[in-house]
Amino acid sequence: MFNILLVGAGQLGSRHLQALALADFTDITLQVVDPFEESLARAKERFEQVERSTSIRAIDFYTDIGQVKGNIDFCIVATNADCRLQLLMDMFGLLSVKNLVLEKVVFQSEEQLEAAHQLFARAGCKVWVNCPRRMLPGYQALRERLQAEQGVDLRVEGEQWGLACNAVHFIDLWTYLGGNVSYEADVSRLDLAVVDSKRPGYKEVTGTLGGRSPSGQFTLTCHADTPQMPLKLEVETEHYFVSINEAAGEYMLRHKGTEAVETLSFPVLYQSQLSHRIAESIYLRGDCELTTFEESAALHAPFLRALLAFFNEHDGGAYTLCPIT
Fold this sequence. Notes:
- The protein is α/β, with parallel strands linked by helices.
- It is 33% helix and 27% strand.
- The protein has eight helices and 17 strands.
- Helix 1 (11-20) crosses helix 7.
């Protein structure tokens, strides 16, 4: 029996659960924990909206991590970032967890990243961070196409897409396509006005966040007042220019030398179509396509350091934790 635990049954957590309901690689038990009854009720409703695999032998919903039973083979933590480290400390104090996937933003400071690293090492737990663009066939094919290129530049632009919350997804994509792990973050082009996030208690920013390494750079731009501007992704290397339209499910690749243009299919999979694949891969191979915690921590650190300094300078704060999730 493969024992799966989902901690956090909110909007994203319930989508994880819908995917886990499809898992059919062995006999499975599911346990779901969330302190809020309304979140559990919504998760139950969404679970029942999908056709459940016959491999799901049992599912239980709890409001406290102390109610969870047995050793955990695979766990997804989909809580907000502010409570995550304490939750993990509590969880590892109560349970044996072999494999763990964390939502981003994974933690809110470099100190928390280090504390988590030590926690996972003591527990002997394998950990990944859920930046799932690495699992999309379109990006996998693009990475294969660009593997001989010496550097990759990534540009992302759109309106109100949650720059602070979602930047890590695109930094991870830039790393995946170009192999850059070490970079310097640049917050000098962010708009000075810090705004409240749609999630209470958190902050957001607009403007442009940059990053540079010796072999590439990224610019992530979020406009505050450009109405209905769809998210646009562009990738450029020495030999190629690529324009990606995730919403339309296609990308255009132009070879700079020959000017030959290819338009390729780019199917986008949602979280409700992915989480069971992660679980199956871990069950079969002891690994998955997501970013390891070690690599993701290296990508988080410059971003958190720069953004924390920005909030302290422009939001009148004495922040010790970056107020994003």
